[in-house]
């Protein structure tokens, strides 16, 4: 069995952002040489997410509004976690959007449904953060 590991780094200019990382993940699959297997991709930080959904800007605005309704960034003092930090909302948003995705690799490709794309969801950005890609298979 082959095994492949890579870290992808991000540093968003804004506090919150959604980045389509599918091209980078496809590059990892190619680099791994694995044709049949399983790919795991997870955020390595507790204030960012990796998730699968549609690459449609309207939907991304809807996610932003939905998450701000559930866990608004401000006022900062509404959260017990915010004392030395101001990122309680980012922890909560991350929990809703999820930590990781698992995708089947078939015939050397991500075995997606028709509109599936992989996103990095940043909720407390403006600093360097990592995503782990692990692929196992043959
Ligand atoms: Zn925190």
TrEMBL record:
Pfam families reported in the protein's UniProt record = YjbQ (PF01894)
Task: State the NCBIfam families in the record.
Answer: TIGR00149_YjbQ (TIGR00149)
Name by which UniProt lists this protein: Secondary thiamine-phosphate synthase enzyme
Q: Which organism is it from?
A: Thermohalobacter berrensis
């Amino acid at each position: 069995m082959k095994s492949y590991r890579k870290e992808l780094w991000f540093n968003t200019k804004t506090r919150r952002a959604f980045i389509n990382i599918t091209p980078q993940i496809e590059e990892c699959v190619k680099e791994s040489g694995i044709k049949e297997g399983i790919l795991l991709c997870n955020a390595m930080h507790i204030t960012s997410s990796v998730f699968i959904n549609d690459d449609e800007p309207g939907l991304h605005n809807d996610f932003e509004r939905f998450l701000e309704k559930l866990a608004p960034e401000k006022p900062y003092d509404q959260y017990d976690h915010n004392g030395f930090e101001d990122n309680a909302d980012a922890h909560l948003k991350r929990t809703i959007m999820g930590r990781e995705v698992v995708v089947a690799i078939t015939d050397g490709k991500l075995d997606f449904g028709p509109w599936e794309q992989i996103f990095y969801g940043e909720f407390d950005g403006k600093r360097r953060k990592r995503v782990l890609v692990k692929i196992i298979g043959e």
